[in-house]
Amino acid sequence: MSNDSDTRRRAEAVLQFNRFYRTFLGAQQDDQPASPFSLTEIRVLRELYSGGTQTSATLARMLSLDSGYLSRILASFARRHLIARAASQADARRSFIYLTETGRETYASLKNAAIGGLAERLGKLSAAEQEELIGAMQVVQRLLG
Predict the structure, then answer these.
(1) Which CATH number does the domain housing residue 56 bear?
(2) In this structure, how many other beta carbons lie within 10 angstroms of the beta carbon of residue 107?
(3) Is the whole-model pTM more than 0.90?
């Protein structure tokens, strides 16, 4: 059984990795064309893209976002014709949010740019190193997920 100092040392190692990875991702963003979307806005688009129609309450909960902040993001998306809303037939007080075709195309473009940038970075590793990296990431997700 580990003692408290071992746990603290391990926690510091996790924080160190987190700092490294944020820096890595920031460097990736520097290599990409400028995006009109913040990271949080991209998270909202991704959730709507992959999760389909959602309520704003569900989105706020899933993404751990303040409902007022999310409301402003959604209003901005609506002005840009990225989302549409449909009233719930079961409860008129609720409305469902979904991506429009423009919203789906916009997110797909952002995703493709991100994948392209990461593929370029991964291309500097051998196939075996790429598989080792993916395996390690899967372990992190399994242990912390």
Answers:
(1) 1.10.10.10
(2) 21
(3) no
Measured between alpha carbons, how far is 99 from 107 in angstroms, rounded to an integer? 9
The secondary structure of 4-60 as a DSSP string is: HHHHHHHHHHHHHHHHHHHHHHHHHHHHSPP-SS-HHHHHHHHHHHHH-SB-HHHHH
Asked whether residue 31 carries a pLDDT value surpassing 60, the answer given is no
| Domain match, 27 and 48 both | no
Phi then psi for residue 7, to 5 deg, are -65, -40
Inter-residue contact 53 to 100 (CB < 8 Å): no
Which residue segment(s) compose the domain that 10 sits in?
A: 1-31
- So what's the pLDDT on residue 32? 54
Number of domains in the chain: 2
Furthest CA-CA distance within the chain: 56
- Within a 13 Å sphere around the CA of 30, how many CA atoms are in the beta-carbon half? 7
DSSP, res 95: E
**What's the whole-number average pLDDT of the chain?**
89
